[in-house]
């Protein structure tokens, strides 16, 4: 299972939000490339980059940062935020992303989703952002109109194989994931589906619980920025190894 350190970009800086609230970001680095470099030097095997400006604007805004991270740091990058046309998805992959994460467009434009799946296959993922038991879109501001289990079944039937599931109400709160809910959703994703989870991880114990589930990876942001544990300690837990001394 892979740890995906998160680099969320808002107003050009590396930030974290609480429960998807754009009005109250915590800024951790003025240059998101510096944040990405910290995680890679700490042992990250993948990175998760979110263009929050793009999610809010409806089109990519921070491709320059994505290009620098992909070019300079030498690890694969999963990128989302504002990818609402096939041209945007193509451009994200051309900018260096190994995997493009589509959210709003996957729900509003079935023809676009079908074209993206056909064109990019495993290099495409769909975001399943859940708030109060419902899937949210448009930068977590609108209800998509269906519960997540139905979303997974429907998207799976359309050929989507990789999902990024975010528990919005736990995101940035450090209070732990709802392991039962994650387990149910991961089990319902279907044979061959890959799921990456995000939301609420605050301790190594949280990662240990998630490591027992059929997940492909876990996205962690605030807990890393605030020094709750290191990238190496977190990846060791996900690998099933004992973390070193001083693990939180």
Explain this structure:
With 248 residues, this protein is of the alpha/beta class. The protein has eleven helices and twelve strands. It has an eight-stranded parallel beta barrel, surrounded by six helices. Helix 1 (32-41) packs parallel to helix 3 and helix 9 (204-211) runs parallel beside helix 11.
Secondary structure layout plus pairing:
Layout: E1 2-10, E2 13-16, E3 26-29, H1 32-41, E4 47-51, H2 52-57, H3 63-73, E5 77-80, H4 86-94, E6 99-102, H5 104-108, H6 110-120, E7 124-131, E8 134-137, E9 142-143, H7 148-157, E10 162-167, H8 179-187, E11 194-198, H9 204-211, E12 217-220, H10 222-225, H11 231-239
Parallel strand pairs: 1-4, 1-12, 4-5, 5-6, 6-7, 7-10, 10-11, 11-12
Antiparallel strand pairs: 1-2, 2-3, 7-8, 8-9
Helix pairs in contact: 1-3, 9-11
Query: What structural class results from the helix and strand content?
Result: alpha/beta
Helix content: 25-40%
What is the C-alpha radius of gyration, as a whole number of Å?
A: 16 Å
* CATH top-level class: Alpha Beta
Number of domains: 1
Number of helices: 11
Shape: globular
Strand order of the largest sheet: 1-4-5-6-7-10-11-12
Uncertain regions: pLDDT < 50 for 5+ in a row?
Answer: 244-248
Sheet with the most strands? 8 strands, parallel, barrel
SSE string = EEEHEHHEHEHHEEEHEHEHEHH
The fraction of residues assigned to DSSP E strands is 15-25%
The CATH architecture would be Alpha-Beta Barrel
Oligomer: single chain
CATH-assigned homologous superfamily = Aldolase class I
Strand segment count: 12
Spatial gap, N to C terminus: 20 Å
Mean pLDDT: 92
Please name the CATH topology: TIM Barrel
């Amino acid at each position: 299972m892979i740890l995906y350190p998160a680099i969320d970009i808002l107003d050009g800086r590396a930030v974290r939000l609480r429960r998807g609230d754009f009005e109250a970001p915590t800024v951790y680095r003025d240059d998101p490339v510096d944040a990405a470099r910290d995680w890679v030097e700490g042992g990250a095997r993948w990175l998760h980059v979110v263009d929050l400006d793009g999610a809010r604007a409806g089109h990519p805004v921070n491709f320059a940062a994505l290009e620098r991270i992909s070019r300079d740091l030498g690890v694969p990058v999963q990128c989302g935020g504002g990818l609402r046309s096939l041209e945007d998805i193509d451009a994200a992959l051309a900018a260096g992303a190994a995997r493009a994460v589509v959210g709003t467009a996957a729900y509003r434009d079935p023809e676009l989703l079908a074209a993206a799946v056909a064109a990019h296959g495993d290099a495409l993922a769909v975001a399943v952002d859940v708030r109060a038991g419902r899937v949210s879109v448009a930068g977590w501001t609108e209800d998509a109109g269906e519960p997540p289990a139905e979303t997974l079944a429907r998207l799976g039937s359309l050929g989507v194989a990789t999902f990024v599931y975010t528990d919005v109400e736990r995101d940035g709160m450090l209070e732990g994931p709802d392991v039962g809910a994650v387990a149910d959703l991961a089990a319902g994703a279907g044979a061959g589906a890959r799921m990456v989870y995000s939301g609420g991880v605050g301790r190594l114990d949280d990662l240990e619980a998630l490591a027992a589930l059929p997940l492909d990876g876990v996205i962690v942001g605030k807990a890393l920025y605030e020094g709750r544990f290191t990238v190496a300690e977190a990846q060791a837990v996900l690998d099933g190894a004992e973390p070193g001394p001083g693990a939180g």
